[in-house]
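Chain entry —
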Amino acid sequence: MYLYFMPLPVNLDKKLLEELPAEGEREEIQVPSSDGGIEITEAQFLPASEWLRRAQSGGIILFPPQFLLLHLISGFLDQEPRPGASMEEMEKRRVALVKFVHSGSPAWTDKCISPKMLKMTEDGRTVLALDDAGLELKGSGRRGESDRVVLVRFKKGSVREVNVAWKRDALQERKEGRSNL
């Protein structure tokens, strides 16, 4: 996992804060260079929770590894209160996120995720295991995330209804015959 934090404002004039766009509001600071529309069509800075919301509503496509990472980041940075959080609170959240990415075995900084189908839910979603590092890293000892899975509905070559769940809950669903994931 690679994280880059934009600098937090220090000793800002309250007048300057009033001039900043509201969260999610569009403001063009620098025109992003185009790659001819192949992958990059627009650049926006939004909270992780907003990207997750857009993916769940079908507004954008996030593939399972990216959805998982934004889900984890959102749990740290998008806590309430978000818009009114103090600089100290925002720094505290960042420190907690950095501590988290260095935790685990392997640490999140060293995990490699290549989703593999684990099973289908009763409602037709695919449960993707995240613990495999992929064929490219076979035999290297690298691994992914073993505690969580991603649920997704594949539809017309796209991913929809993406969600993160604990692996134990996804496997328990089959044993108990319930589909509340």
In short: Residues 49 and 75 are 8 Å apart (CA to CA). The two ends are 26 Å apart (CA to CA). The helical segments are 14-19, 48-56, 64-77, 87-101, 167-176. The beta strands are 116-120, 126-130, 145-155, 158-166.
